[in-house]
Amino acid sequence: xxxxxxxxxxxxxxxxxxxxxxxxxxxxxxxxxxxxxxxxxxxxxxxxxxxxxxxxxxxxxxxx
Length: 64
Fold this sequence. Notes:
- This protein is mostly helical.
- The chain is built from 4 helices and no strands.
- The longest helix is centred in the C-terminal third of the chain and has 17 residues, at 40-56.
């Protein structure tokens, strides 16, 4: 089951860093769609939200 549809989240917000961090691995990269169980549409929206939050400085590009 998709995380966003099961929790009734219609819009993936780039400012909600706690939700976005669930879909990043410890090095800061996005987890693949096969592993996190998202639909293709939600995976695209998630990647756009992560990119926006990285540009805004809310998430780091690389974690060391």
